[in-house]
Each structure stands twice: as C-alpha cells, then as structure tokens.
Design goal:
single chain; mainly alpha; 13 helices; about 0% strand
Length: about 260
Amino acid sequence: MNGRRPGGLIVAFSMFSVVPVPARLLGSDPLDRADTAATVRWLPVVGGVLGGLAGLIGTAVLYRNGSSGLLSAAIAVACLAILTGGMHLDGLADTTDGLGSRAPAERALDIMRRSDIGPFGVVAVVLLLMLDVCALAAASTEGSPWRLCAALVVAATTGRVAGVHAALRWVPGARSSGFGTMVAGTVGPITAAFVSVAVLAVGGLLAVATGANPVGWVITQLIALALAWSVRRALTRRLGGITGDVFGALIEASTMLVLIGLAVL
C-alpha cells in the first residue's frame, strides 16, 4: 500500500470510534489536512453504524422485557458513548467550561485545551446524557421495539451532519493547530448538501420502517440542524473559529436535539 491509507471511511472509524482497525489498513504516513478532511465526510456513516450497534443492544433488552424502556434507552446511550470513546462528550465538557468562564476568546481556548473537566463541563455532560436517555425512551414507547434502534441511528447520523457543516469552507479555525484547524474550511457546500439530503432520507425511511411519522422525523432533523447551525455561528464568533472541542459539542448537542424532537413529535 506504499504507506498510504485506503480511504476516508476506514480512517474515520479509527479516529471517531473505538472499533479496532488493523494498522495495515491505515498505512504508515501521518495524517495530513486532506486525510482528515476526507474522514469528516464519512462522519454520518460512522454515526449510523455506531448508533445501530448501540441501538441493537438496547432493542434486545426491550425485546426481553417490554416494560424496560428507560433501562433499554440508558443502555443504548451508554453503549454509544463507549463506542465513541467519549470523545464528543469530552468536547462538550471542554467547550462548556470555556464558555462558562466568560473569559476572552484566547483565555477561553486555553481553558478548553486543559485535560481536566470543570464544574460546568460535568453539569453539561450529566444533563445531556439524562436528556438523551429520557428522550430516547419516550421516542420508543410506542410501535415496534425497533423504533429505539431507528431513533438512535437517526439521531447519531444527524448529529454528525452538524459536524460536517462545521467544516464548511467559510468556517475558520480558532487555533493555529489542532483538529479544528485541520478540518476547518475543507467541506464544500455541494458535499454538505448531498450528505444532509442523504441523512434526511435515511430518517424518513427508518420512520416508515418502524411505523413512525416520516414527516415528523424529517422535520425534527431539519430543526436540529438549523439550531446546530445557529449555535455553531455563535460559538465561532465567540471563539474566533472552530475547534475540535466545539466540533464534538455540536455533534452531541445535535444528537440530543434530534432525540428530544422525536420524543415530542
């Protein structure tokens, strides 16, 4: 393979999940900006696979005991966090700590760079996971037990579309180095539009397959992405651009918004 990686999908799984990828498939060359940008385009696929695996485990519990909706949802959400290595949750915690400091942008970025988690970050992660679990349980109380798995797949894929949007050409990086800088401005609008439409289509199809309202599910996805777009614009203005932590925070927040919308609608 001459040290080169075979494609963005395999690298995306190695970067954004704990799924073991053989070293021979990754190549020996270090990641460059083009490599990292290619992985971002595959994020929704990674999210769909991880959400599907976690959802299958939760659905199996729900099949075993039809009254264990809350437990099934909690297990599914926990499995998804484990499969991602908690990296997006860490980004949420760091971003919340930086914003909670109310410090100028440069100081806030320094706080976000630290390896520890402050009180704002802890509260944000706890609240988000609590809302994820409750919303997923509520969204899957009626209809087929497979709706739990479908809802988690739709939420995980849509959340990662927000990550794709965060790498659009006009979004700057906040730092001179780091993941955010490597992916900032690397996704074209046509690519982003194609990925968005594909994920919306998946949401509608899974809704039909599990007896849910496809219009409601697609509207939920659109609302979540619109809110994530607004949050991303606010964060980039506040910090001067995108960072890896903001990237993860947007994914987690968008996933949560989709689950809440599916439960409400």
